[in-house]
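Below is how a single chain appears once it has passed through the pipeline. First comes the sequence as given, then the structure the pipeline wrote out for it. We keep one example in the README because the format questions we get most often are answered faster by looking than by reading.
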Amino acid sequence: LTMRWENQTYSAADEVTLRIDSSGFTLHQFQFEGPLGIFSATGQLGFDNSMSLEFELDRFRIGRVSKRFFPTWDLDGVLAARGQLNGTFASPVIDMAGDVSEFEFEGESYGNLEGIISYRDRVLLVESAELDNRYFHASASGTFPVDLSFESKSDSVSTRVLSTEPLTGRLEASGDNLDPINRFLPQTIESIRGNFALKAGVTGTPQNPLFFGEASLRQGTIKTIEIINPLEDVEIDVALRHDTVVVRKASAVVRDKNR
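Resulting structure:
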C-alpha cells in the first residue's frame, strides 16, 4: 500500500489495519515511511470531521515541510516527536513533545532543539523550547495567535497569523561564544566573542509587538572594519524597552599591536 504526499511516495511499513463503521474510521495500525521520514498513528477519524489520534514522527526531515509554512526561512533538521490530535478539522487540539537533532538555520548548525508545544482555540503555546550546542544554551516559551485549521486553504503561516490578537514570549540565552550569530551582524562588525547573557520578552500583538529585555557581554572582543585593532576587554550592559536601546555600561580597550 502506498500514498502520495508532497509529490513523494510513501509506503506502508507493515500491513495497514483500520475499521470503518457508521461513525467513521478507526486506525489500529497505520504506519508509512518515505523520503521525509516515518509517520504512524492510531485512533479515530469521524465522518463529522472529529479526531482522536495518537501519532508519532521519526527521522522526519523538517526542511522541505518548513518551506511551505516559512518560505523565507532556511530551516532543517531531523525531527522525532509524539503527540495527540483531538478536536475537529476546523478546530484542532494538538499536544506534542519532540526534539530536532542537527537543527540548522540559514545553513548554520545549532545543535539539538527540544520542545513541548500545544495548540487550541487558535493559540499556539510553546510550553518549553531548549536549544543546546557547544556555543550556548537558550530557552524560550510563549503564546502566538495563529489559525491552524486543517480546513484552511492557506499553506503559509504569514496568512494564518491573527495579527491583532495578543502574543507573549520569553527568551533566555547564555554562553561564551557568539560565533553562530556573527554572520547576522552588520557588515561593519566582523565578529563578537565573549561571555554573554540575554533575557528578553515580547508582548503586544503580531502587528504591533512590544519588546523588552536586558543583555550583557563580559571579557568580550569585537572586531570591526573601521578599527584595525580589535576592541578587547569589552564590558557592555544594555536594556531594550520597546523601540529604545539603553546603554547602561560600555567599556573597552584598544591595544596597539605594533608596540
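The helical segments are 63-69, 157-160.

See the next section for the split statistics.
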